[in-house]
Amino acid sequence: MGQTSIGDLINSKEREQIKSMVYEHKNIAELKAGEKTEGFYLIKSFEVRKTTAGKQYIDINLVDKTGEVNAKIWEYSKETEKIVIENSIVKIRGEVLEWSGSKQVKINKIRAKLSTENIKISELIPSAPIETSEMLDTVKSYVKKIKDVQIKLLVENIMNKYNNKLLYYPAAKKNHHSYLGGLLYHTLRMIQSGEKLGQVYDYLNMDYVYAGVLLHDICKILEMDSDEYGVVSDYTMEGKLLGHIIQGIKEIEIEGEKIGLNREKSIVLQHMVLSHHYEPEFGSPKKPMTPEAELLHFLDIIDTRMFDFEHALEGVESGKFSDRIWLLDNRNIYKMQD
Amino acid sequence: MGQTSIGDLINSKEREQIKSMVYEHKNIAELKAGEKTEGFYLIKSFEVRKTTAGKQYIDINLVDKTGEVNAKIWEYSKETEKIVIENSIVKIRGEVLEWSGSKQVKINKIRAKLSTENIKISELIPSAPIETSEMLDTVKSYVKKIKDVQIKLLVENIMNKYNNKLLYYPAAKKNHHSYLGGLLYHTLRMIQSGEKLGQVYDYLNMDYVYAGVLLHDICKILEMDSDEYGVVSDYTMEGKLLGHIIQGIKEIEIEGEKIGLNREKSIVLQHMVLSHHYEPEFGSPKKPMTPEAELLHFLDIIDTRMFDFEHALEGVESGKFSDRIWLLDNRNIYKMQD
Amino acid sequence: MGQTSIGDLINSKEREQIKSMVYEHKNIAELKAGEKTEGFYLIKSFEVRKTTAGKQYIDINLVDKTGEVNAKIWEYSKETEKIVIENSIVKIRGEVLEWSGSKQVKINKIRAKLSTENIKISELIPSAPIETSEMLDTVKSYVKKIKDVQIKLLVENIMNKYNNKLLYYPAAKKNHHSYLGGLLYHTLRMIQSGEKLGQVYDYLNMDYVYAGVLLHDICKILEMDSDEYGVVSDYTMEGKLLGHIIQGIKEIEIEGEKIGLNREKSIVLQHMVLSHHYEPEFGSPKKPMTPEAELLHFLDIIDTRMFDFEHALEGVESGKFSDRIWLLDNRNIYKMQD
Amino acid sequence: MGQTSIGDLINSKEREQIKSMVYEHKNIAELKAGEKTEGFYLIKSFEVRKTTAGKQYIDINLVDKTGEVNAKIWEYSKETEKIVIENSIVKIRGEVLEWSGSKQVKINKIRAKLSTENIKISELIPSAPIETSEMLDTVKSYVKKIKDVQIKLLVENIMNKYNNKLLYYPAAKKNHHSYLGGLLYHTLRMIQSGEKLGQVYDYLNMDYVYAGVLLHDICKILEMDSDEYGVVSDYTMEGKLLGHIIQGIKEIEIEGEKIGLNREKSIVLQHMVLSHHYEPEFGSPKKPMTPEAELLHFLDIIDTRMFDFEHALEGVESGKFSDRIWLLDNRNIYKMQD
Amino acid sequence: MGQTSIGDLINSKEREQIKSMVYEHKNIAELKAGEKTEGFYLIKSFEVRKTTAGKQYIDINLVDKTGEVNAKIWEYSKETEKIVIENSIVKIRGEVLEWSGSKQVKINKIRAKLSTENIKISELIPSAPIETSEMLDTVKSYVKKIKDVQIKLLVENIMNKYNNKLLYYPAAKKNHHSYLGGLLYHTLRMIQSGEKLGQVYDYLNMDYVYAGVLLHDICKILEMDSDEYGVVSDYTMEGKLLGHIIQGIKEIEIEGEKIGLNREKSIVLQHMVLSHHYEPEFGSPKKPMTPEAELLHFLDIIDTRMFDFEHALEGVESGKFSDRIWLLDNRNIYKMQD
Amino acid sequence: MGQTSIGDLINSKEREQIKSMVYEHKNIAELKAGEKTEGFYLIKSFEVRKTTAGKQYIDINLVDKTGEVNAKIWEYSKETEKIVIENSIVKIRGEVLEWSGSKQVKINKIRAKLSTENIKISELIPSAPIETSEMLDTVKSYVKKIKDVQIKLLVENIMNKYNNKLLYYPAAKKNHHSYLGGLLYHTLRMIQSGEKLGQVYDYLNMDYVYAGVLLHDICKILEMDSDEYGVVSDYTMEGKLLGHIIQGIKEIEIEGEKIGLNREKSIVLQHMVLSHHYEPEFGSPKKPMTPEAELLHFLDIIDTRMFDFEHALEGVESGKFSDRIWLLDNRNIYKMQD
Questions:
Q1: From the list B1, B52, B240, which residue is nearest F98 (CB)?
Q2: Which one, out of B149, C317, E194, F103, has a CA that is 20 to 30 A from the CA of D176?
Q3: E6-123: CATH superfamily
């Protein structure tokens, strides 16, 4: 059975209240029923549907960096349909309603973003807090710090191979760092921490610490299918059957052979990738057998946990606990009073 | 401090008893203190040592297929020392003594095996019950049963690469099938069982069952260093840091690429190798996702267990239990009455 | 509060579309909203209810081998009610509608199956792919292969005792082999596999392999209450408090005593039943201590897994993964491209 | 090689010291090197051996309730050998020496216990602190408290069947209650605790509490082979392959059938035996499903633990910790200051 | 969107049936659609809402000791709203309807309880079966049995500190003993059991058994926020970050110091609190190291389990099983036939 | 029985060889049979014993920072005995022999260290690589970085309380950092790492990071009894019954109360101590609920692992694996080629 138009159910007094408000831009997370908004959003997906009365309308999912909301264009026209393009940026005017407990935007006006309008993509989709090109530069500056010529060349070659995808790949399908540039951001913070801990534990061979961080997750690019907004639709066939750890090992083996990488160096780097999840049940059938491999694991998990804690505490009041966080073993995280 | 010669401690009456006995060949497992033996044994290792009195003697470890025993040549001479060569076959005459609870052979005569003397190596070292060349022929006959031309070629290439080593490699450093030809014997029985279960579960793709069995453990050849008697001195560096599962995956990836193997087929075969230990804590970070991979695991474990049970029951009396078998989770295995 | 008739909600244009279609038989799994069907189905359960308007109607659950669907007879009459009998086969004519996301059949005509109409029960309920009488014959042919006269008599006596129920009992309440004849089908494939593996591992005592397979699950007949269609309503009191493993052990003890079965043979068979689930947490407080008991476990689990994989892959496209399969540890199973 | 006589190695001054001391009776646990003892001990085992010099001597293991010690009779004679009978009580005079860190008794005089000498067996072997006949009477007084006539008869029949063995069987091969009368002592304290907790949790059916306690371990008599001193040489074949839980279930099934015991009562009692170890890995594939079965488990484990703690604290000084106790998960038990 | 009034949907015949019935008091658990009730209930919470038609009504959650039910006052008035006070007792007259599968009471009359009406609070909220003041007296009588003057004083001081809250605190937020007086009831039954088991295991120091029971859970009063009806809204900040075990240890440390409690006694009592959950994953990082600490654990778990079993069996028919009980590891509990 | 003097068993030729060598100082780890040494060592323990021949000699255990060795003074005199004092430094001249596979020093000359001889204690006992007073200064410089006045005062007070013991306490009885100054060294490197990671994860509250590190293990001083050489003889009674985590919590509670520390700050610090072992089975019943607590755990474990890896690799050749390291889950650690 078709869906009754929400427009039919809201009473006319409420409609009047909405109309009298001024349009101004609001982030999706801030939308409240009864308010208006005007501004740029990204069309994630859309469908042309019919009401039970047989009237056509367009059902759209809008996103910005703060979240996602369903929207409707009740007045269908061929011209409007042309504007509604998946993954394009549009400017809309709309009213916020509530339907079955969820927010919904009734779009009154819509048009495509003009080429003259300069909208930052990071405003419209969840993304790392630093521009990806800037992160990539910083990360590459660490490649230069690798002293062993062969290892440096190996890392350069592999990073260049995936240069474009590094600019938008997330570090995961969901959970930590699952946004545009997440893979780079994760790599960046790990390598910074690695550099600093190398000052405390100065017996470590930093070439392996740097190369290990730079290569440990790079085959997530082969494991997952991400669009250019950092949204992963699914894992790849090879990703499911083998996983990024195995894929990363093969990458080092093959790219290493191409440049005549010393066999011991290649195996030790492969071992670092193999062992970085530490526990067999998390994907590492071998535990680290060098101190650099051991450290790599902790750099990885610290970055993940510091990320998860930071996000878990967003929106929690001082002196209160978060809800149970599944990613953190169902802990309730506490936000200290200032 | 040197070791007192056992010859000094035994009293003369006992010596007389031993001398009066006739020399006849005895397997090492059957040696009893107070008896004599004459026959061929293999020298596993030896050392020239001195008694506390400063007299030189030769300390030898002899083996045959039934076990290992320490032996001494108390009368040292340069000539004798030339005969004593590691891994060579010698004929000895000796008396069996007991020293600190262990058997020990006092060698009275020793000479090298003559080239005219035809001694089967399988008499002198633990080895599979079928000749390895015969096993290799049988196993190769299964390669011919693979219908997919690419997969058949892949398997042929990899097996040819390791053809020589297949003729003596064991399947393990210790535990199951850790003897000459053990890897082939394990492979043989698995592929026979696989063929038969394929008749019951006829929806299976037998090309993958056969290729999976043939490739699943082949990189044990890269994981372990075995001498030509099937004795593993140690794991290789790559074996310890990566292991035969990862090595096998890389082998398929690289050899597959060489012959232009269809990508899906390559990945599915790599997945079979990856998942054949089934549990992460036993080395498989992914569980089988195809029925052929699932079956491969069970063919592997059944062969291992049937081997372990067969050997656990050797030497157990009817109606009695074995000692606790560590390999079988410390079970006491029961030997039924006939 | 009563349920509004779906007939009142669908608009008249859609009704016309349905009427113009020709009636033809469709399996329940294939039913699509907007189509018609005519043919034989089994009435699993029914209830006479009232609409909110106080009008009587009959609510029926129809099944065939492909699934289950809810149906309604909106025009109630005493005569119609007489036709509607639980577990009887009826012929119907109906239109397929959709209600709250589920299919529903509006029955326009219904009559009982005539005694002259020959409908195979296996068309109407999920059942093993081989006729149960045929399976029973095959299974019994293995009893004859048991050489030990006492063991053969024991197995014969126990199988005869449950002969009738064997013809329809499933092997489980849900999950694997939970359909008519499932217990026999499970037993059949296990014994066939056992016979074949006995050719590879020829030191096994096949009398115990055969007897073990034939007896290992037979007390599922005492553990569960199944109707003659292989549908288990619940576990029995003894089934819940003790379970089929304990029940099977007592069966062998008692039936063995009746025929003067040698005590060792009885205990070893009881041990096979006791240990066949292998792990304590799956119901086996003792692990197998004979090779035949060890093999029994693997025959059991292989048959279960090969069954689960086969069914998991039904309806999956080539080159795609199934959804997560709970029975297979939440794995996504991969269907290879042809 | 034979064992050098300890008599040859001790110097004569030490011998003189020993000789000058008075003989008096000492418990084995109290023996100190350099002292003498005279009194009754039990011969656990003995062997006639030869020194390296070819001289015969008798090697004896003596026990009393406090422990075990090795002893030697260096002056062999046929007459002496006749006195030395396994499991017999002898009176000896001897000197305590130390050999390789262990105590050893040099027996100077030995004779059989005279029939007129009244030595309590509980002085010579580890045994429960209450006379077994007294414990059996007390335990049987609880049978009379069972109100259900059928259940009372069942328990009586089974207890009478094992009446004699109950008088000496231990509750285990080693560990808790592994001494003469241990099974009865364990049963006694459990039934006393059960009676008392039944006063707090008064909704319990005490017939099942009493019957459960009395039957839960009774088939340990079938599981283990104990001599009349409460020393278990080994588990029985049935004990190893099935275990006392399964044996106990069959006992109730069969003895219940004999007296026409109501089926529900029989199954519930069998369930109590089945579930009393609580965890699958400790032998119970089903957890308790009645409150009486649940309590039975706790009565069992409390008695075991209270026993283990009591014994762990024996010989520990106030304010000190025991060594790690394996039976108590390697805990160091603390003995409070008074 | 607002909720349609249930009153509009029920047909008039049903209304008539309801009206003709006599009002009589029914416990909430017994309410059946189509019946009336009249009597006292407690208002747990309420809200003034609007129907879609814009009409105000009051939505109330009523409780008594048997459960909770939603109720509506469709005829809103300011006067009525004044009567509806959270946590107050009211007398109502109402009709029971069914809405979306749940019971709902349509309140026709409502008034506050008169001060002259004597309603036992234990009728209106779930509470322990014994009056809390009576339980407190009994529990305190055990304090007097403590012979050690210091320990007795410690326990008295701590109990007096929490005297008022002991009179209503539950033992848990949900699950076992989560009702008014639950903490006292749990303590009472444990101390009674402890006294009795101390008669069987008479080597125990009863001072520690009594003090351990009395103090083991007392800091649940600091861990949880309970209202005076024994309903816990949440855990406290300290409760979440440390937990009642750690809080209890600090309590003994500090209160002990105040009275100059002997250091050993204080530590041993703290250890009892620390170890009473037994397993690290349940909150005890140390296992019991004294027999009294060991017993304390079992007294605790027995009382919990006997409570859970008793409640699981409420409302189960003889000869039937309960549903799966999450608290009891998803067991189905069996109720024996009488 | 006494021990035969090793001097009697070595032949005279060997003696001559030893005598002809020059005495020079050797670390205990470098001692080789047949060599001589002269220099300062610490007497860990000693005993005056007798040979079987009744001659007195002194048995001494000598240590330096590299290890421990047994030594003998065969020529006993009253004067010599006066020199041999536990925990004193002596200068010796001796020859190294081998006895039953262990090194042993035959001391020819011995005298006490003169007060004018300046021997660094860190040469004679295992100790941290930085002087403890220097470490303490550095660690205290971090206390000054704490901005919160109350928290700073709390940390100062607690550190001052244990100032003296901090200068020598090890961090463990055995395993990581179990040497003089180990506790400080562990604290130092953790706080340095914490400072650096705080630069990467800049949302952290560094006051808690610093205070957490400084307090997390400080009650190891109460948990263990260490002598002034950093050698732990045993755990304390309170250490065994409660452990340093619980002791640390009480310390903060009580010291916090003394200075009126804000309750939230106190609880959060206590929580950090409570949760720093992370897993219940390692002693933390609560997991970290603040990011600073989470980080504290990783600082702790990284320092432990980096320590263990560094030491595991000592003495391993390049390109080789260490033996299995129990502390590192039995891993063989790999030392890369340079």
A1: B1
A2: E194
A3: Nucleic acid-binding proteins (2.40.50.140)
